[in-house]
Amino acid sequence: MHTTLKAIASQKLDLRKELKQDINVNAEGKEYWYGLNLPNKLPKHQMLQNAVKPIGEVVGWFGYQAGKRPATESQFGLALWLYCGSPEAAKGTHAFLQARLGKSSLGLLKEPQADNAVAFNSADNATKGDKEWFEEVFGRLQG
Asked: For each successive 10 residues of the chain (143 residues), what is the average pLDDT?
């Protein structure tokens, strides 16, 4: 997992220097995750960064998550979370992701949450490997 995430960060996101040891591993209740925080400067994803309007040093997170979820969602999968700076930014980020990812079979775009986070989770019927999934998601968001 670690090698896959680092490769995506380095190659697809061009974050060689920004990601020193920014691993985010934790558990809360019956939710578990292992991933990398995304710094608030994404050289290849300026439009995404502009939509998120992050506050602080982290624009989001990507990695692996598992836990108890509604039956319509995967109990284990890949995910991208974006931490928006305001409710308006969360709505704009959701619209941006919907335009770029909404018509794909890659996964499920969740509505903005109360904390202004927007999440995109892999589908249960994923036909791509982990690396390929992340590459396609970030590729669609590039620009």
From this structure: 85 70 80 90 90 92 83 75 97 96 86 94 79 94 89
